[in-house]
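Hi team,

Filling in the usual template for the complex we talked about on Friday. All components are listed, including any nucleic acid strands or ligand strings, so the model treats them as one assembly.

SUBMITTER: L.P.
PURPOSE: interface mapping
COMPONENTS: two
RESIDUES: 874
SEQUENCES:
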Amino acid sequence: MKNNASASYLVTVAVIVGAFGLTSCGKSTTAKNERSANAQATYVAPGEQDEYYLFYSGGHSGQVFVAGIPSMRHITTIPVYAPYPATGYGFDEESKKMLGDYTWGDVHHPALSQTASKYDGRWLFVNDNANNRVARIDLRDFKTHQILGPIPNSSGNHGSSFVTENTEYLMVATRFSVPLPKGRVADPNDYAKEFNGMVSALKVDPQTGEMSVAWQILTPPFDWDLASTGKGPSSGWAFWTSYNSEMAHDVLEANASQKDRDLTAIVNWKAAAQAVADGKAQDMGGVPVLDPARVPGILYFLPIGKSPHGVDVDPSGKWIAYGGKLQPSVTVVNFEKLQAAINNKTFDGDFRGTPIVKYESVVEGEVPVGLGPLHTQYDGAGNAYTAMFIDSNITKWKLPPWSDDERKDMNKTVLDKVSTHFSTGHLVVAGSDTAHPYGKWLVAMNKLSAGRHINVGPAQPESSQLMDISGAKMKMVAEAYTEPEPHFAQILKVSEIQPIEAYPKAENKDPNAVWDKEHTGVTRNGTSVEAKVTAVRSRFVPDRIDAQVGDDLTIHVTNVEQTRDMIHGFGLVENNINLVMDPGETKTLHIKLTKPGVFPYYCTNFCSALHQEMQGYLVVSNAGQPVPGAVYTNGAAPAPVPDAGASVPATANPVAATPASTP
Amino acid sequence: MKKKISNLLGREFRFLARPLNFWSRLLLLLAAVTIFVSLFFPLWRMHLVAPQYSDGLDLFIYCYKILGGGLNGQHLVEINNLNHYIGMAPIVQADFLEMRWMPFVFGLIILMILRSVVFGQMGNVVDLFAVYCYFGIFSIGSFWYRLYQYGHNLDLHAPMTIKPFTPLLLGTKQIANFRESSYPELGAILLCASVLMILLAGWFSRKETVE
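RESULT (copied from the run log):
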């Protein structure tokens, strides 16, 4: 296609021009009166609160960032896939167990749980592209409660995690195909034959939110990129883009960009769930896996140009927009036509037994948005907003139905463009993926900030830009910076959730929780020593714990406070431990004691006027040499006392023994 | 002189023997109901505001219990926690002996009122008023004494040393970073209303005579 050749040329030119552009511009040219109007629109006065939560994925930081809209202020960080000493995440036994052996993850696509295609304010799900996991954050306490994975038979968890309209499933697909089941080794030269991709459905328990792997669909080794789930007329369907239906295994930037159109996936997840229930799946690694060549009606391919990146179903569920990435347009598919084509078998052959839907029969039009269109969002008022990576802007365009005039000249469907700084990846419109978007605000998440911020050296932050989209023209009103690296985000109205501010004592079911002095103490059984500790302003009880080298030491700390923001930490000096307990929370640490010494522990989270005094001592004496003051609540003997003179007594003080010398 | 005294006593005797008319008895009945209703409301509220507690901490005093404000009475825990820094003993309901017998006394007073309604003599109203007033003044006095004790028996080993003080019974004052307000609540207002009703019951029948 000649058209596409010229498009590619344009892309190259744009990248070069863009690169020059970056060095010369970047200074604000906002007029003075406009500045004050923008400032007023985003100003949240001291003591006042934002109207929306902005949940950013934290990318390879492994975390989720929470900011407020319209102020764009960073409010908190929710640790998910990486230890985070600020909240003690990854130091206590429970979160350590959740993290497993991994100390990082790559969070890309946060998804709020939905009921009837509306945010229900219960959970936020986030994927880990690197280690094939999905985590659930509970919006009751803004904490990570489950990490599922690595998901069997699934590698490169990028097209993830997208909730279905009632959070029945999280839809997940592989970006990096590998030989399956995982662990099997094959030569990448045999990629097309030996490697496979997978579409997975993760079931979500409607009461608890607990996730489990429900079933999978085996696919050719295309690189599944992003997904979107259906609603309304497209209820029960899910859609994925792909960028490597060439099935290249090396030099992908060229070899996976050869075809003008890549095969995208259209999954009938309701039919797939039924097929699994009907026993049509085969077990692979403990998961029921469907082979679409044998089970018709669950998977279809649709060619879309070119190496499409984002796919987004509009709020009505009728229009599906595919971001062209390497072609300067968004392809809009009409779901009703797609449904008819599938019913009438309007196919262009098949690939490995999966029917390929005829492109012309389902495409409503190609909107000429500009260069590098990646993702599209909707305001619920008939408008779409697409992020342009190469052109570096947001383009607003009109969803169908289009007039004959507009169809004749599709440029007329393009309504507005606003430059972004620079190279926008994802964008989010408040509530875009629901049936009823809030509209009003759009946040562009830019991949390059390229010196717009104060200079912080070569490691540059990511920029986000807030746009007011309530008028006919988009208006950029604020700019903020985050650590690497937001990909997608979700926006939730603050008034829709009521998170707790302390864990109610009655809900603490930890068998090792203690709430009063009488139940605290240190017990010894053989070489295992267990301490039950309370933390309250401004002391730990007990503030002395005795143990010996070689002991297995377990410490349970309960923050007995029930007052909001009365958080206590438990930092154990030179033992790489920092627990942080929210009010009403119990956390447990375990260490094998290997070195003798007296190790102070102290409250790390500033709590009160006497916070500095909130400290204690862990006394670790050499094995068999307890200090005289060691006391165990269960009456255990400190340890057998060795023969006198056999070794240096634990209390010998070399400093005291040395006469003080004066110069 | 003797005649004068016996005249006076005679008048007093006749006054005390005056029957209570319908309205007086109704008022007395109403007073009994009001006292009963007051049991469900706090008598007193202590409200503490500090920069860190801009919404304030509340203590509600009922005749039979102390209730902290906030979820699950959390404010009481918080107040005790803060008070430990100045060495004040924790406020616990078990220490308030009067809270065990006060509901019993209120029951007794309600019984006395009902007795007056049935017997219907001015003398009953006078009895009632005297016992009720004594009980009321004693209760307030004992409440003040509790406050005095809490503010004066401070642990000398506490982190912060402050001059012994009596927490405010009525009014508003600044104590360290806290602004303390102490005022009667609906329960106390209802009790005052019931006293008024008893007085009015007597007033309305002051001229009644046996036919």
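MY TAKE: Chain A is about 10% helix and 40% strand. The radius of gyration of chain A is 29 Å.

Thanks, L.
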